[in-house]
Amino acid sequence: MILESLVKYYEALANAGELSRPGWSQVDVSYALDIDINGNLKQVISLKKQEGKKLVPLKMAVPSPVKRSSGINPNYLCDNSLYLLGMGNVKTDEGEDEKKLKKKKERIKECFFAAKELHAKKMPKGEDVTEAVMQFFNRWDPDKGDESVALQELKDEIIKGGNIVFLFDGKFVHEYDSVKKYLEKTDEDSSAEKCRCSVTGKLDKLATLHPQTKRVRNAQPAGASLVSFNGSAFESFGKEQGANAQTGEYAAFAYGEALNYLTERITFKNYLGNTALLFYAISGENVYQDAFSAIFLGDDDYYDQQDLVKVVEKICDGSVVDFNDQKLDPNMDFYLLGIAPNNARLSIRFFERGTFGQFINNIKCHQTRLAIEGGGNGQTFLPTWQLLQETCREGGEVSPILAGEVTRSIIENTRYPATLINAIDVRIRADHNVGRRRAQIIKAYYLKNDNKDVPKEVLTVGLNKESDNIPYSLGRLFAVLERIQEVANPELNATIKDKYFGGASATPATILPKLIDLSQKHLRKLNPGNKIYYDKILGEILDKIQVEGGYPKTLNMPERGAFQLGYYHQKQELFKSKKGEE
Predict the structure, then answer these.
(1) Which of helix, strand or coil describes residue 302?
(2) Which InterPro entries did the record assign (predicted)?
(3) What is the pLDDT of residues 65-74, one digit of tens each?
(4) What is the 3-state secondary structure (H, E, C) of 162-213?
(5) 3 state DSSP class of 353
(6) I need a labelling partner for 280 at 20 to 30 A (CA). Which of 3, 170, 448, 569 fits?
(7) What is the DSSP string of 333-351?
(8) What is the pLDDT of residues 502-537, one digit of tens each?
């Protein structure tokens, strides 16, 4: 299902001209060797373009490069200076003898001659353009490359790395029709092993090696494989490598191109822990990705929160919506794929399929549960990556398992994992901070995951003064006691929260009576108006606690959640009611 959806996505992109056809790949090209009909090098042209403050290579469709691991393996019509010029950056390590240095230089020359042999086999005969390329390989002497006048200006840059192509008569060699047709013909090998492709269902050449996906954070820079068999433990029935997967070369190429297209567009907000979140519409239209990124990840600079709310409402109503001057169809097939690095491979964390409207509706339900007062920045949506950051210390790594479980629960609109509330409780007890995001998570968790110790009456957007729930009232009480201390001692850098919050939320009978006694000293420092104001609030809360049986000795984790929500709600209410202190 995963590979099938990626192949369909590739075909939609190829039909739109976004991706290359089989046998061709989009790669970064830095330089072009401009040659004449006799194969002489006229000049070297830099193809890099300015992006911001950097020069970046030009993205170009060229014959698909080979998958290199070791040994000498040239590419056709697009390669680096080792293969097309027989020149490389030969560094002499300290203490290295002449024999080793000579061996390095010989290997570079072997790369050039391997490329020459490859082009002699693959280049069609009788065309000016192809004869020019072959004349170049016949005339070029790697030993005298340093003497080439045409090469001097960019020589140092070229040998540092970067792909090179050929240019003849103002046109790239690989773009000539005769070269394209001959390349397609030579790629047809009737003697190659055929298989019934498990992805497309058609007969095709067996893909022995599967493509590598690049630009996944913490994966190998050269790329990691979604499908690979490089050890006997992964093989069965005596089959080797790709024979275990029964995937045709077309399907392998197509899904590889689609994956690399998706990872090229990835941003840091697409990462939930170490899991890269990829999403795509089967139509290949990028507007669905842009809208989903804005709604789920908060990654949009054009639409504000209120505009996004309107877009979400219309989609959930089943209406076709305008977004970035394009149409969003709620019935469009949409996919979410979570991948994480695992040595030289990619692990699948989750894969979800549905309509675009279904996913947006599930996200809306999640965001509705998160709704709570406070913040003051106009933020309506809490992006999932921000939610997950609350589960670990600042600068820490989000658990990849937790990231996958939380994402799946949101997009499927199912119960949140218990590990989410456990992580939030641990963080609150560690740093004594119940911020808006953590309060949102607590509220959403217990709204979706029913618990008798956290009644619905405390899971409100704002303060519920009518609630008689003891843990909730205790949290309110602690917030008022902290505020009294702050008003009485405005110069304090730390409050009772920094020392007693964890104890008060776990063993209130031990801590809170002492803090109430302390508050009486603080109240005496206040002016008469403030003293009356806070006395009244304390009296209302203490009455609820005494009627219900007083302070409990301990609170379990759900009850601590109610305590934390009561604390947060009361803090927000006191912030709004500062005028009462005047």
Answers:
(1) coil
(2) CRISPR-assoc_prot_Csd1-typ
(3) 887 777 889 9
(4) CEEEEEECCEEHHHCHHHHHHHHHHCCCCCCCEEECCCCCCEEEECCCCCEE
(5) strand
(6) 448
(7) EEEEEEEEEETTEEEEEEE
(8) 999 999 999 999 999 999 999 999 999 899 999 999
